[in-house]
Specification:
The complex is a heterodimer of chains A (231) and B (533).
Chain A (H helix, E strand, L loop, with lengths): L1 E7 L7 E7 L6 H12 L18 E4 L2 E4 L10 E3 L5 E4 L2 E3 L1 H9 L27 H5 L2 H4 L6 H13 L4 H6 L13 H5 L6 H14 L5 H5 L11
Parallel strand pairs in A: 1-5
Antiparallel strand pairs in A: 1-2, 3-4, 3-5, 6-7
Chain B lengths: L1 E7 L3 H12 L4 E4 L16 E2 L6 H11 L6 H21 L13 E2 L9 E2 L5 H15 L3 E3 L2 E8 L6 E8 L4 E12 L21 H8 L4 E2 L4 E8 L9 H4 L3 E4 L12 H13 L4 E4 L5 H7 L1 H11 L8 E10 L2 E3 L12 E3 L4 E2 L11 H19 L11 H14 L7 H15 L6 H17 L14 H25 L21 E8 L2 E8 L2
Parallel strand pairs in B: 1-2, 1-9, 2-6, 9-16, 15-17
Antiparallel strand pairs in B: 3-5, 4-5, 7-8, 8-9, 10-15, 10-18, 11-14, 12-13, 13-14, 18-19
Classes of the chains: A alpha+beta (231), B alpha/beta (533).
Chain lengths: 231, 533
């Protein structure tokens, strides 16, 4: 019973290697990392704090899907890699600076006054733990690294509902934002907190339209089949 | 790097302090050893205590009673009187507190409280508060230094004024300094000394407290550690008090209920420990609540039991034990939250001992403390005017030399990970829920041996960047400092009071109605008892 961990060290040659480790049965993946570090290989580097799924620090890719290491029990043959679309700093530790910068770009905060009465509408959205699983699952990232990404748009939606002023953030999510999403729903599938960013993005599109914005893809769509020559 | 206010720690206390200082016009840097929001605050489920005008005095009385005689009525009054304003502040920031069908805030009872005053946001109160504070920090352009691990405070030898701190930048592997007019330490508690036997996240090792002691400051009441009655047996993962509040039973392996489950945490924890010491297992039994009710009332718990124990709360008994949960002791501060023995250095939250919780903490008061006192720390640090300008200091050079020594001269012939595990185990079994003279002396001897062996420990990983082996090792060094105070305090407090229980002195003895005080002279730990003010 083994797992394979993709190791990375930018100062080594080759920078990336795959290493196999035995599974400590009955333990979570995060506990396995800890066991490996303390009893087999102290150089294994990973992030993890709370052990109970609420701090968001331990997300990794397991067989190509983002998982919180603290909430997953490994199986024989699992392939463990760092999160997608993040710069790898070492082994499973990634740089979240860029993904979290999107929170500021999108003004994903409360603007105007808080409307307490709307709290029940944001129960799920306010459970986000910034684990970046959704960001790592989003195929738009592969083609547009400036895309604001699912968790930031969910936060924008949360504060839009909670505030009496939403222009600041609705304006900020028109570029590389709501209209760039393909609505594939991968983010919703991987969220460990049961958040549905796809639905939140669809709702943000409606709010955007109500605010006078329109879908730029629709406006630019070329029905002349330009580029295809069927003759 | 220079700023007005340096906040160390990015949990609820640190972020509240940072926001307040920023609001008052200061430049603020928040340094954190992980990323912002990776703090124990996010694990707080229960709620936030806030007392209405006609409840304030009762809230004060409840808190004083829980403190078992060593809480400060002045500090408790300060906190309780600020509680409503703190709740209003959180609501204004957008924390989505739970409402009833009429749109009014709902609150609940917590153990030890006379009135209902605990406000909550589903079962994610701490998480929603922390994430909202972080969003607000971003809105206010507060600067974060991530992956900055606190090494030492920068102190003027003569005046004892603190003017910044040194950090190990985990990203670059360099020792750095941040200079500031005043410093706020908000680094969290030290339940992590009980390695493997705590509900806390990794890294709750009392770094801030250890740095204060090394800088010539004072810590106090370190022997007071709250043990939570119901943590999962294998993983020490917390199962919320709500499980008992909603009607869960505690039964032993004979199927017998052995304690009133709703008694204060310390009493329930002792009863559980007694069962286990008499070779009976202890289980949490919520099967009678049925699956549907459980998924509504305890969704996180259902998930955690499934993942960590592979058990279904609706059909299985859940094996539990009591483990370290919250540390009442910490950095000794005055009524302005300024560290005793140092100047311009404030401490707030679980790392501090503001004499609010005393010998035992009331549920719902920890979130209240980090927010209300956090804002107060931010304000007081802002108002602090440095008396001296320290241009030259040797701390940076000393810390660079230390890191260099760990890389090059510490021999690594002893595996510190094994020692860390061993220390956690013997602390838990001998300086945990039940303590006695012989056990405490034994652990203290073992710990002092580890201190002597420290230079024979070390690191296997010699990489410069993202060397978490090195961080674990420095953290273990801090653990050794804090655990020594815990043991000395527990050994000399020959009485039982609140969470501190001595089998050989089971009664409360008012000769000890005082604070244990710790400081270092020439590198040697000193301790005494000081009267309550």
């Amino acid at each position: 019973m083994n797992i394979t961990i993709k190791r990375f060290d930018k100062h080594k040659e080759p920078q990336s290697i795959e290493m196999s480790y035995p599974i400590f049965e009955g333990l979570t993946l995060l506990e396995n990392f800890l066991k490996i570090k303390t009893t087999i290989d102290p150089t294994l580097s990973f992030s993890g704090v709370c052990r109970s799924g609420v701090c968001g620090s331990c997300a990794v890719m397991v067989n190509g899907k983002a998982k919180l290491a603290c909430s997953y029990k490994p199986n024989d043959g699992d392939m463990i890699e760092p999160l997608n679309y993040h710069e790898v700093q070492r082994d499973l530790i990634v740089d979240k600076t860029k993904s979290h910068k999107t929170l500021s770009t999108a003004n994903a905060q409360l603007h105007g006054e808080a409307r307490l009465e709307n709290s029940p509408k944001v129960i799920v959205q306010s459970d986000c733990i910034l684990c970046d699983s959704c960001y790592s699952a989003c195929p738009v990232m592969a083609v547009n690294s400036d895309f604001l990404g699912p968790f930031t748009l969910t936060k924008v939606y949360r504060y839009t509902l909670q505030s009496n002023e939403n222009k600041t953030s609705i304006d900020a999510i028109q570029t590389n934002g709501v209209w760039d999403c393909t609505l594939c729903g991968e983010c919703t599938l991987v969220c460990p907190q049961g958040i549905d960013p796809k639905m939140d993005i669809m709702n943000l599109r409606s709010i955007s339209v109500q605010s006078g914005y329109s879908d730029p893809n629709f406006a630019n769509m070329d029905f002349g089949f330009g580029g295809f020559d069927f003759n | 790097m220079t700023t007005d206010i340096l906040v160390i720690g990015s949990g609820g206390a640190g972020l509240s302090a940072a926001l307040k200082a920023k609001e008052l016009g200061c430049n603020v840097i928040v340094a954190t050893k992980t990323l912002p929001t990776n703090a124990n605050t996010c694990m707080a489920q229960g709620g936030f205590n806030a007392s209405s005008n006609d409840d304030v005095q009762t809230h004060i009385d409840d808190t004083i009673k829980a403190s078992r005689g060593i809480g400060s009525p002045v500090m408790i009054k300060t906190m309780c009187e600020k509680s409503n304003a703190a709740l209003d502040w959180l609501i204004a920031l957008g924390v989505p507190f739970s409402l009833d069908d009429n749109g009014k805030l709902v609150n609940r009872f917590m153990g030890g409280s006379t009135n209902k005053r605990t406000y909550y946001a589903e079962d994610y109160t701490g998480l929603k508060i922390l994430q909202t504070l972080y969003d607000t920090c971003l809105k206010n352009n507060i600067t974060f230094k991530e992956n900055y691990y606190l090494l030492n405070l920068i102190v003027d030898e003569d005046s004892k004024e603190v003017s910044g701190a040194t950090f190990f930048d985990i990203s670059s592997g360099e020792v750095q300094e941040i200079r500031s007019k005043s410093v706020i330490i908000a680094t969290g508690g030290y339940s992590g000394v009980y390695h493997g036997f705590t509900t806390n996240g990794f890294g709750s090792s009392g770094n801030g407290i250890a740095s204060v002691i090394r800088a010539g400051g004072v810590a106090s009441d370190i022997e007071f550690v709250q043990f939570h009655p119901t943590a999962l047996k294998k993983s020490s993962i917390l199962i919320s008090e709500a499980a008992r509040g909603e009607g869960g039973y505690l039964v032993n392996s004979d199927g017998v209920r052995f304690i009133d489950e709703l008694l204060p945490r310390d009493e329930v924890s002792r009863a559980i420990s007694k069962e286990i010491s008499e070779k009976r297992e202890v289980f949490l039994d919520v099967r009678h609540l049925r699956s549907e009710k459980l998924s509504h009332l305890l969704p996180q718990e259902l998930k955690l039991c499934k993942i960590h124990e592979d058990l279904d709360m609706a059909t299985d008994l859940i094996p539990v034990k009591s483990v370290a949960h919250y540390t009442m002791g910490g950095i000794e501060v005055d009524q302005k939250l300024q560290t005793n023995g140092l100047k311009g250095c404030f401490a707030v939250g679980e790392c501090s001992n503001a004499h609010i919780h005393g010998a035992n903490r009331l549920g719902g008061n920890s979130l209240l403390e980090i927010i209300s006192m956090g804002m107060m720390a931010g304000e007081n640090a802002t108002n602090y005017t440095p008396k001296n300008t320290l241009s030259q200091h040797s701390q940076l050079a000393k810390d660079k030399a230390f890191i260099n020594a760990v890389y090059n001269t510490f021999t690594n012939q002893i595996n510190f990970y094994e020692k860390r595990e061993f220390l956690g185990k013997i602390l838990y079994h001998n300086a945990g829920v039940m303590r006695n003279d012989m056990g405490l002396k034994g652990v203290l001897a073992a710990l002092r041996q580890m201190q002597k062996e420290f230079t024979f420990m070390g690191i296997s990983d010699k990489s410069k960047e993202f060397n978490t082996n090195l961080i674990d090792f420095i953290e273990f060094g801090n653990t050794l400092e804090v655990a020594e105070m815990l043991l000395v305090g527990a050994l000399h407090r020959c009485e039982s009071r609140g969470a501190h229980y001595r089998e050989d002195y089971p009664q409360t003895n008012d000769t000890f109605k005082s604070h244990s005080i710790f400081w270092k002279e020439d590198g040697v730990l000193c301790a005494e008892f000081k009267d309550i003010k």
